[in-house]
Design brief:
This protein is an alpha+beta fold. Helices cover 23% and strands 41% of the residues. The chain is built from two helices and five strands, in the order H-H-E-E-E-E-E. The strands form two sheets. Strands 1-2-3 form a three-stranded antiparallel β-sheet, with no helix packed on it. Strands 4-5 form a two-stranded antiparallel ribbon. Helix 1 packs across helix 2. It starts with a helix and ends in a 5-residue tail after the last strand.
């Protein structure tokens, strides 16, 4: 969705970069509003999932941890 909106606004590599860098650029996504500050997502949320095998079967169980994005790692 973000790339689609940026491509519509300015369909070049530099144009996409400039569009995403604009302070008022935002897109409503599946998880909420998507905005950027510099090269980082503003108020981004990262969901990390560890998948473990259930000992009693061949099924897998997700173990979810949620962290607030504060930059690259």
């Amino acid at each position: 969705m973000v790339l689609s909106k940026a491509l519509t606004a300015n369909p070049t590599r530099i144009g996409i970069q400039k569009t995403l860098a604009k302070p008022l650029f935002s897109v409503k996504g599946a998880t909420g509003v998507i905005q950027f500050q510099g090269s980082d997502r503003l108020n981004g949320k990262i969901t990390m999932v560890t998948v473990r095998r259930n000992c009693n079967s061949n099924n897998f169980v997700p173990i979810v941890s949620t962290y607030k994005a504060i930059g690259c790692f």
